[in-house]
Amino acid sequence: xxxxxxxxxxxxxxxxxxxxxxxxxxxxxxxxxxxxxxxxxxxxxxxxxxxxxxxxxxxxxxxxxxxxxxxxxxxxxxxxxxxxxxxxxxxxxxxxxxxxxxxxxxxxxxxxxxxxxxxxxxxxxxxxxxxxxx
Amino acid sequence: xxxxxxxxxxxxxxxxxxxxxxxxxxxxxxxxxxxxxxxxxxxxxxxxxxxxxxxxxxxxxxxxxxxxxxxxxxxxxxxxxxxxxxxxxxxxxxxxxxxxxxxxxxxxxxxxxxxxx
Lengths: 134, 117
Known about the structure:
heterodimer, A: alpha+beta, two-stranded antiparallel sheet, 2 helices, elongated, B: mainly alpha
C-alpha cells in the first residue's frame, strides 16, 4: 500500500493526522472545566499516537495509530455546593492542562500549515513540469 | 549507457533526483511530530554522479541516503528540525525550478533547430 507514496500522499496524510491531533486538543479544551462525582468518571485528556508509514527508504508519511488518554490525573476538590459532590462534599476536576493544550494547538496549526506549504510547492512545480514543452 | 542523455544532458537526471529529494524532505516535514522518527536526506552530488554513471535515479538516490545529524537533541528521539527541513525544502524547490528552466532553454533550442526557420 505505502509502496509508492507521492508528495501529495505524504503531505495529505500528514495533514489528516494533524487534524486528528487538533480535534483531540479541541475536545480536551472543551472538557477542561467539567467536574465529576468519581475519579473514574472524570475526563482525562486524549492524545493521538503518531506512527510512521512507508516502505521505501526515507519516503514515509504519518498516521494516527490510536488515541490514548494521557497526561495529568484528575484532581479532587472540596466543593459541597456542587450538585455533583459526593457524600464528603468532594468533586473531581478533569485532568486537562489547559495551557499545555493551547501550546499543542499552536504547534499543530503550524505543522498543518507546513504540510500545506509543501503541497502548494509540489503542486506548482508539477504544473511547471507539465508546461515544459510549451 | 554511461554518461548523460544526449538531448537533456545532466539535467534530466538532476530533475528526477530533485523530485525524489523533494519527497524525502516532505516526509521529514510530515513526521515532525512522530516520536523516534529519524530525519533522512541524500547527498545530491553523490547521487547525481551515480546517476550519470548509468544507475537508475531511484538506486542512485538510495545509495547516497543518510540520516540528518540534528543540531539539538529532543526528548522524544525525533530528529526533525523544522527550520532545517524548511530551508532545505525551499532551496531544493528553487533548484528544481532552475533545472526546469535549463531544460526549457534546451527544448527551445532543439525546437528552433527542427523548425529550421
